[in-house]
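Dear Dr. H.,

I hope your travels went smoothly. While you were away I took the liberty of generating a structure for the chain from your last submission, since the lab meeting agenda had it listed for discussion. I wanted you to have the full record in hand beforehand rather than looking at slides cold. The sequence, exactly as received, is reproduced here:
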Amino acid sequence: MKKYLLPYCDILAWCLMPNHFHWMVYVHSTEVYRTATDGVIPNHPVSNKIRNLNESIGILLRSYSRAIANQERRSGALFREATKAECLSLCDEITPSFIGSYIKVSNPEKEYPQRCFHYIHYNPVRAKLVKNPEDWKFSSYQDVAGIRNGQLINQQRIGEFGLII
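The corresponding predicted structure, in token form, is as follows:
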């Protein structure tokens, strides 16, 4: 995940559920130039081709899906085709009915990112997979809480947004 996402963004929260996943990211750039470390041959005509964030997410999901399919000796889709991305800092672009009816916030610019951060970490509790979010090892909760020293999330960026668990 680091190789494909971190050139573009900081990961603020993540949670892997049995049939879906959540990421909360701070996007720096949607396009990054490829380098020799990306597996591209130096001085090759495609070396400077721009890779975008969507392309990298696609590569990540395909790689993960192939690995799980091989491990489980199965075929077919691993993830639902429909994905959803919301910009948390530009609330004008979030569906008004989503803010108004789903999570009821009075100040969307400040409250919506915190609600999403909380939602991601408490998803396993709501799904009755665990009693407490710290018991679910497939999320960033333990890293944010200081229980585990995970390397995916950016604690400094989380602090800049004032996000708390």
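Two observations you may find useful: The chain has six helices and four strands. Confidence is low (pLDDT under 50) at residues 40-44, 94-103.

With kind regards,
E. W.
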